[in-house]
Known about the structure:
Pfam families: DSPc (PF00782). The chain has helices at residues 6-12, 17-26, 30-38, 40-53, 57-64, 68-81, 127-130, 133-138, 156-159, 185-208, 222-234, 239-249, 257-266, 305-330, and strands at 108-111, 121-125, 143-148, 169-175, 211-215, 277-278, 284-285. By secondary structure, the protein is α/β, with parallel strands linked by helices.
Amino acid sequence: MATEPAWLSRFRAQAPAEDVAAVWVASLNEEEQTLAETDAGAARARLRVALLDSGCPEVKADAANGYKYIGAVLRAADTALGIKHKRSDGSVPSTAGPSGAGAPAVGRQVFPAEGRPGTLGIWWSDFKAACRIEQLVAQGVTHRLNVAAECVGKFPEEKEGKGDTCVLKTVHVPMRDLFGEDCDDEVIAEWVAQLGQALDILREWKKEGAVVNINCQMGKNRSGAAVAIWMCRERGWGLMEAVLKLREITALACGNPHIIKALTIFLDEPAAEVPLNPAGDGGGWICISPPGSPRAGSPDPDSNQPCENIAQAAFEKLAALEEKQEEESEKLPEDFGGLFEDIADA
Length: 346
């Protein structure tokens, strides 16, 4: 019978995450040490796989708890291996940053650029930040991948008919932004196929040693899914681990459960359960893109349609409620005296 590794015993004893990571690093053989020095991410991925494949009940219990302890151990392993997840200014983020309407139009670095073929640097942003070419170029970005259907053709240079001359190579994977009843199996299957397209594009750009900025409208769900598939398929991250990391980078990221479902299908983990962004009351946050704001006098007759549809639906519901209340009030007796006949005098 094989002896249980010392680091796994420490894990099962719920030792501090730093202790587990330290014992694991100390247990690496010569080949594993070489891998840790040349490709720390791959070495860390092996630790994750070893944990998940161990089959010990503590792993299953932690899975039910959102992989919090495993996540802490892997982050401790990052530190032990010298893997640092930094902002563009070199600082380690302490809290997730906002994105979308009203937030600063900035991208966030997920994987630093190495500047050589066979590597891929990744930045992640909302659409507004993706439009700031000078800022992207200053960050070293060479390519843009837009995964928001409503943003296709909306980059400033595209609207001016200069898309082909832009310094940044831009490719679109037009994922629709849907939620609720609109997200049937057909839509999810469409997203799964589009995630595959995004992964193929990123793999091609890796051959060039590109640095890509991935965006959607708000920089949370569709673009987060595109980043997550790269993390899982190319960098050895687990789905839960990747989602939690992205939520550390951008507030309320990966908040559309339907897109998360598409992710689990794409990654062949249909039974995986990814919790919502935790809320203070013990529940969870769902975060989706708002409809486009109407523009008075817009030359596009359909530009206001999303808001008009929502407004019309709300109006119809309110009208129906008001009508129901009026009908109920008409049924009430004018004289309420009979209601109190059987009540004895105090």
